[in-house]
């Protein structure tokens, strides 16, 4: 779907020859020769002639760089590279890969990146070179090695941080006096309650927002606590139907809004070039306000709508969100937009040196600057008693000052192979900034940014992602069911018996080989800084995937 939409065809001219510059030299190598070397490690006669210029160690490093794979879908690549923020990454990469002809410039590199990400082998430098729509390419080897060193350092630091989370989880598990786990109810099994789903239409005239909202009401007579689920960019309410039905079967009323400025329709508009932005800056305030508005309307309807009959408990509310929905959940829990941090991190020089794609999106929030509006954007909703943020973006939009404002219990879920919102910068380090003691960090080892997302409704024009971009999705969704249920039972409903599930010992007991599961409750900034400063300086391990 993506390639024809952007006018990109697989029949485009492919690069055949590479002119690799290194120091004062320029070496001519065929793409086929480079491809054979990358795949086999065998230096043929054509490549052997250049060994005197490129030492064996650097040739081996170049081979690894050619094969390193970024786990990202062509949809995400297209979303990013057709936005103004994507231009920053293209400028950075254009220093390394250049067409032998002055035109068509960025369009050439952009096409190669999208085509390469759609290949079965995924987005690798080798695939980019193979898909480059020009007969020849100029490759700056020194720049390539420099960027690879940066990425390896980042990967190595991420691996060290994830290993520290894993080790911390083992230590915490060993100190817990856990009850007999076999005697605890199996929360993977749906509850006994049936639920009815309604799709309600709310219209906030002050913001001109039509909010189509799915509401799952369990068959209970007493007041049912509320869980709001906020979807991520390019998704809609259908993606978390699996979680909504599971929570409803245990007595929660589940509310799943469609955020109109950052849902599947917005993605479709961008793919059809009706907009160049993934999301408008206003989404950073409108999404939390969507939830608050819907809760306000439900308070009114709870008394007047025969479908509710006074069964909704609007004073016991929990929020679950993924990606931008994770941001939404944290904002509702009390995190404040940190314009000072954004000003610091979003300078052009800083952006051109970043590999954190989520930072490019976070910087959009600068257009909501306090100086323009006179508002401080306190988006907290006092009714929210607990929040779960899965793969959230946090590092600059909130920063340490913004996240430390959260006083309610929080669970942050991170994925080790997340290339959209990297685990280290967006979840692990930010978790250490949370000041309240009721906090949990969950790590999906082997998970990606897309693992917890359910299958959307094809009628909603969602683009299907390749299976290897998602990982073990069924296991990831089971984890979300099993962890969100006791978290909300404990901190929203106030049932202390469920806290037995919220510890490292329990998560290790249900962890699978295909998708590891770790949980820690303590991980401070000092420990993390020491870890990265002392161990991060060591050479990165070979065969590390790019972040």
Name a few traits of the molecule:
547 residues, alpha/beta, Rossmann fold, 2 domains, nine-stranded mixed sheet, 13 strands, disordered N terminus
Mean pLDDT, to the nearest integer, reads 83
| Global shape | globular
User: Strands of the biggest beta sheet: in what spatial order?
Assistant: 5-6-8-7-9-10-11-12-13
Q: Major β-sheet, in short?
A: 9 strands, mixed
Detail the topology: elements first, then pairings.
Layout: H1 2-5, E1 17-22, E2 25-30, H2 31-40, H3 45-48, H4 56-67, H5 74-81, H6 86-94, E3 97-99, H7 106-117, H8 125-131, E4 136-140, H9 141-174, E5 195-204, E6 209-218, E7 224-230, H10 241-248, E8 253-257, H11 264-271, H12 283-304, E9 312-322, H13 324-333, H14 339-345, H15 348-351, H16 357-362, H17 370-373, E10 384-390, H18 399-403, E11 410-415, H19 423-433, E12 439-445, H20 467-470, H21 473-493, H22 504-510, E13 516-520, H23 525-535
Describe, in plain words, how this protein is organized in 3D:
The structure is a single chain. The chain is an alpha/beta fold and 547 residues long. The chain contains 23 helices and 13 strands. The radius of gyration is 24 Å and the shape is globular.
Summarize this, please?
42% of the residues lie in helices and 16% in strands.
């Amino acid at each position: 779907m993506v390639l024809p939409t952007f006018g990109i065809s697989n029949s485009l001219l492919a690069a055949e020859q590479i002119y690799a510059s290194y120091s004062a030299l320029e070496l001519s190598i065929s793409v086929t020769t480079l491809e054979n070397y990358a795949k086999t490690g065998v230096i043929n006669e054509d490549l052997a002639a250049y060994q005197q210029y490129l030492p064996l160690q650097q040739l081996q490093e170049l081979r690894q760089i050619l094969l390193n794979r970024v786990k990202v879908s062509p949809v995400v690549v297209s979303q990013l590279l057709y936005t103004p923020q994507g231009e920053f990454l293209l400028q950075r990469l254009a220093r390394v890969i250049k067409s032998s002809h002055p035109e068509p410039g960025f369009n050439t590199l952009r096409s190669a990146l999208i085509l390469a990400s759609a290949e079965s082998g995924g987005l690798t430098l080798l695939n980019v070179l193979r898909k480059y729509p020009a007969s020849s390419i100029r490759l700056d080897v020194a720049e390539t090695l420099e960027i690879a060193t940066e990425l390896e350092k980042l990967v190595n630091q991420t691996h060290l941080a994830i290993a520290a989370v894993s080790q911390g989880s083992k230590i915490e598990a060993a100190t817990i006096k856990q009850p007999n786990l076999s005697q605890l109810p199996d929360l993977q099994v749906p509850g006994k309650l049936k639920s009815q789903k309604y799709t309600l239409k709310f219209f906030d005239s002050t913001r001109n927002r039509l909010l189509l909202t799915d509401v799952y009401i369990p068959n209970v007579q007493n007041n049912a606590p509320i869980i709001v689920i906020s979807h991520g960019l390019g998704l809609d309410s259908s993606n978390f139907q699996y979680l909504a039905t599971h929570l409803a079967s245990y007595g929660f009323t589940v509310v799943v809004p469609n955020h109109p400025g950052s849902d599947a329709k917005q993605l479709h508009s961008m793919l059809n070039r009706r907009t160049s932005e993934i999301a408008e800056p206003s989404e950073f305030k409108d999404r939390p306000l969507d939830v608050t508005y819907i809760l306000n309307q439900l308070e009114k309807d709870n008394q007047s709508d025969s479908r509710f009959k006074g069964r909704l408990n609007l004073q016991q509310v929990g929020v679950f969100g993924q990606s931008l929905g994770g941001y939404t959940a944290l904002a509702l829990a009390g995190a404040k937009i940190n314009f000072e941090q954004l000003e610091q991190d979003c300078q052009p020089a800083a952006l051109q040196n970043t590999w954190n794609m989520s930072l490019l999106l976070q910087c959009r929030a600068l257009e909501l600057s306090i100086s323009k509006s006179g508002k401080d954007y306190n988006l907290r909703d006092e009714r929210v008693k607990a929040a779960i943020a899965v793969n959230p973006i946090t590092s600059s939009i909130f920063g340490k000052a913004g996240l430390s404002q959260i006083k309610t219990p929080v669970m942050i879920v991170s994925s080790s192979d997340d290339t959209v919102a990297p685990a280290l910068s967006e979840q692990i380090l930010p978790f250490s900034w949370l000041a309240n003691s009721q906090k949990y960090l969950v790590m999906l080892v082997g998970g990606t940014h897309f693992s917890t997302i359910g299958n959307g409704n094809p009628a909603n024009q969602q683009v299907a992602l390749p299976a290897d971009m998602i990982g073990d999705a069924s296991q990831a969704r089971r984890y979300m069911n099993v962890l969100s249920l006791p978290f909300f039972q404990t901190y929203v409903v106030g049932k202390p018996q469920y806290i037995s599930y919220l510890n490292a010992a329990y998560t290790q007991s249900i962890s699978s080989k295909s998708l590891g599961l770790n949980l820690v409750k303590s991980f401070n900034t000092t420990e993390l800084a020491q870890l990265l400063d002392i161990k991060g300086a060591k050479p990165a391990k070979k065969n590390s995937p790019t972040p």
